[in-house]
Fold this sequence. Notes:
Blueprint: H1 12-20, H2 30-43, E1 46-47, E2 52-58, E3 64-69, E4 77-85, E5 90-97, H3 111-119, E6 124-132, E7 136-142, E8 147-153, E9 159-166, E10 184-189, E11 194-198, H4 202-206, E12 211-218, H5 226-235, E13 257-262, E14 265-272, E15 275-281, E16 287-290, E17 298-307, E18 313-315, E19 319-322, E20 331-333, E21 339-344, E22 351-357, E23 362-371, E24 374-380, E25 383-389, E26 393-399, E27 405-412, E28 418-426, E29 443-444, E30 454-459, E31 465-474, H6 479-485, E32 500-506, E33 515-520, E34 528-536, E35 542-544, E36 548-551
Amino acid sequence: LKMSWFWLYLPLHLLIATSLCPSIKAPTTSSQQSFKTDLFSFYHSLILADGKETTVHLLKDIPKRYYFVLEEGRVLAPFSITVTPCDVPIEWSILVYKSPPGKATPGDHDTQEVSKSQKAPSWVSTIFNYKGNSVETYMGMSSHSALYLLEFLSTERDTHITVYLTTDTTSGHLYPELPTDPRIDVIGVGHTTVTLTWKHSPSVLQHRESIQYCLLVNEKHNYKSLCAAETAIRSSGMKLPPTLALSLSPYLLEPQQVMILSNSELSIINKVSSGEVRQVCMGTKNTYTVPNLSPSTQYYFDVFIVNLLTNASAAYTGTFARTLEEPEPKVTELKDGKVIHVVLDGKKQKLYSLQYQARHKKIHFTFQLCRGQIQVHITRNGKTVASENLSGLRYFSLKGKLLDTYLVQLRATEESNSSVKVQASPHFHKPLFPLLPESLKIKSFSKLRTCRSVTIAWLGTQEESKYCVYRKRIEEDQIWGELQSADRCSGPESRHKSEKVLCKYFYDLNLQRAVTTETIKGLEAGTFYLFDVYLFGPSGIPVRYHSKVVKTRKKC
C-alpha cells in the first residue's frame, strides 16, 4: 500500500510530548486529549503487511497493535482480515480513523473553536470486536482514505496467532476454499477402524497438483486450525516437523514420532502423554478409513485442506466417533489329553482363549512354544492361578476341585506370527512330551573342531530315549534368519533325508553323567553348519533342542 502523508499533519512538538513526556499536560480540550491518547497508540504500533500472513507473538495481558492505511484516491476499496488463534482464546478488535486531524496547533484556545470541537462527533470508531479461539475473517469496504488499527490481547497466557490482510480480493485467496458444507461425515465404525468422508474443496478442482487433504486423529478434542493442533502437540513435550510434516516434509522427526508411507499416503504418529496423535495426508481423496485404532475408544477427527505451495490451510468442521467394543474372544474347549496347535496372528488376532472343565482335582497343563513370543494367563473360576511368558516347554501342575473351570488365554506379544501347542490332562495321564533334561542347549567344542569334523554334546535324562541328529549347510548371512524362523514344534519329518546324520538311544540314572557327545565327520572346510537334535519320548512326539551353528576350520 502507498503510505499516507498522515504523519506530516502531526505537529512535531505534539509527537514528542505525547511519546516522551506523557506527564506534561498542555492546555487542550477533552477531544484533543483523546486524540493524544489515540495518537500514542499509533506511535507504538507496527505496520501490517498486505498480502502476507504475519505471525504475531502475544505476551499475557499486554496488548499488541498493528495498523494499515488504505490507498488514497480509491473508491469503495475492499479489504479482508483473517485472524487464526494458535492456542488459547484471544481478544481482537479493528478501529478506524476516518478523518485525520488538520494542521491546527493545540495552542489555539479560541472558545468558539473549543465549542465546535466538543460538539463534533468522535473521529475514531470500533468496527469489529471478537473474543474466542475460532478462525475469524472480517471483510470491509472503505469509501475514502482511512487508517485502521488492529489490537490483539491474550488474557490467559503467552501465545501466538497468525494475521492475514489483503486488499486484493479478486485475484485468488491465500487460504484454500472450504465447501459450502464443511462437515466431516462418519460413514462407518468398527472395532479398530473409522471411515470418514467430506465434500471436496473448490480449490482441489482448480489446483489439484498443489492442494491436498490432511487428517489429524487424537483422543483429546477437535482443533479449529492446523496452527492450534501443532501448538497442542508441541506443548505435549515434543517438536513437530515444520508446518506440516503433513505437507510431506518427513525430516526432523523426533524419537516419539513414527512415519509410515504406504499407498501414496504419509502417516506420522506422535506418542504423547494423552495418547497417540496421528497425521495422515492422502492427496485429494475425500474418503478415508482410519486403521489400527483401539476398541471402545473415542477419537476426534479433523480434516485440513492444505496449499503445499504456501503452507496455508483451512479447517473442516471436526467430528468424533467411538470405536466398537472389543468382541468377546472365541473360546475353544480343551479335552483330556488332546493336543491343540494354536497359531496367533500378531497383527489381527491378539488373544486366543481355551476352556477346560476339570474332572479330577489335579490338572496338568503343557505348553510347547513353537514360534514367536506368547504370554499365557490361566484362571480358575475367574481367579488367576498362573501368568508368564512362555519359553520352550512349560508345565503347570494345578490342584483344585472337581468341575473347576479353567480359562487359558494366550496373547501374542509381538506383531509376527506366533504358535504354541497346548495340552490339558489329569496329572496321572500318560505324558505328552518326554522327560526333559535340565537344558536343551547344544554345546560345541572349539578345540575339537577340524576342517572336516565338528564335535557336539547335549544333556540326556534318566529315561531311555531316542535322539536324532540333523545337520544343514548354510551361508553366514542366513544364520540369523534360520535361528529366528525355526519352528521348535516341527519334527524330523520336515527335514530333508540328506540332512539326517544319525539316531541313538542313551540314558543314565546319574544325571551328572547323562551327557552324550557325537563327532560329525565328512564336512567341508571353512563352512557354516546348522545342527539340530530331536528327543523322542514314549508318545512319539519330538522335542527339538535349540539349534546350534558351528563353522569348521578353514585351515588345518
